[in-house]
Amino acid sequence: MLTDFDAASKLPKLGATFTRANSVSVSASSSSLVSKTRTMSSSGQYSASASSEALLSKPFVLKNSRTYINDVTLPYPLPVDLTELHRQSLRTLMLIQLFRVPVCCPNLTTKPPTRVLEVGCGSGFWSMMCHRYFRNRGHNSVSFTGIDISPLSLSSTSGLRRPDQDMKWRFIQHDIRITPFPFPNEEFDLIMVKDLSLAITNDMQQKLMDEYIRLLSPGGILEVWESDHTIRMLRPPPPIASGSSPPATAAPGAGSISGSTATTLAEEEADRASAITMGAYVMSPNTALSAALNKFLAEYNTWLTRALELRDICPVPCTLVGPMLLQESDSLTDVRSCRLVVPFSDVRWEKEGIGGVQNCGGANNSHSHSHSHSSSKHRSKSRHHSGKTFSGLSPGQMALRRTALMTVIQEIQALESVLREVNGKSQDEWDTWMGKMMHDLLQENGTSWGECLEIGAWWARKR
């Protein structure tokens, strides 16, 4: 489990894991594997097309100096190059830091899985982190399978390298639009799905949910991690009357969206305090969010919503996962979740103590500095409001929020191709806009109103 989160120190380690050769080549073994999976999936809705034949012969194409999957029918708008792999791995590390574990379902701590499937595995980084988590607890027999349309883990299919050297790992190259997947019924006791929303159209959602249920063994766990792609603004929480308890929240590892009351308010408040200690907030029914005020993020939201509508993709997947799991009540039970909100910087109402906000910096961080574009005199003074004091974010809190912001900026950069399709900007106009946006967000603290990243983890058990 991660302790002190330092984004800068992670990047060199990530670079050692993925090589450019792995992201631009297809081995003979993988080509035969593709043919095998396509044959086994011949009963699916999609059939082999000229596009998929091109994917076999030339799996990648270069656009705007970024590497993409060479399939014009694929809705997935992001590149698959080393830069994007780094961004996704950094986001994964941040989520693990926030959730405190690489898998949130508490049952997996006492009863670890033996056969794990990661859908849309990419480089296999999340599976590797889960492998290390279980291994460090003495569970060495867990086997992992990754499935993805893009051969980003080809080193593992050749048997020469794996995401982790002592990891039981296999990679299946397969288009998830084609069902059934090339596995027998009830093959896995844990299925993990993370950040797959940009690869799934709205009409594919139910088909994939049915496939997950088919592949899960009785008692198996389905766990889904997602992040919203459009940006909203976190507003101050409502004030809490003196002597009263805060509203119940869905806490890491303990929250519920299925009506369970197994956890106590004290446990939920402890997890709420833990999230605040890291610089995040637990999302509850009382969490107030509104449209982003930052003009650059507002423009990005408009462009992205239009671009994803053309691809029949939902820009706010965190609103879909919970209802999708709940509607499968005949097959799934114990549906639970954890949703968090991560501001991108120190927020004005935090410094002013509006709404009874706790001191994010904590008593031990009274010497921490708040990174704000306001005057130095304003930055150096603690603000008092209704008995609350804000002494500035701690270095760890600021690092986590900065990391959330960086992963969003990098995602906007990665989405250049589809965003320019709808905004009509030339390359020079786009570069100018990107430069101004980055200066505003990184140098001028343009997210001080509360613009934030919304994330969530959901899990359920098969009956």
From TrEMBL:
Keywords: Methyltransferase, Transferase. GO terms for molecular function: demethylmenaquinone methyltransferase activity. Gene3D superfamilies: Vaccinia Virus protein VP39. Residues 116-220 form the Methyltransferase domain. Residues 235-259, 358-394 are annotated as: Disordered. Residues 368-387 have a biased composition (Basic residues). One of its GO terms (biological process) is methylation. Residues 241-259 have a biased composition (Low complexity). It is an enzyme of class 2 (transferase). Its EC number is 2.1.1.163. SUPFAM superfamilies: S-adenosyl-L-methionine-dependent methyltransferases. CDD domains: AdoMet_MTases (cd02440). Belongs to the methyltransferase superfamily. LaeA methyltransferase family. PANTHER family: METHYLTRANSFERASE, METHYLTRANSFERASE DOMAIN-CONTAINING PROTEIN-RELATED. This is Demethylmenaquinone methyltransferase.
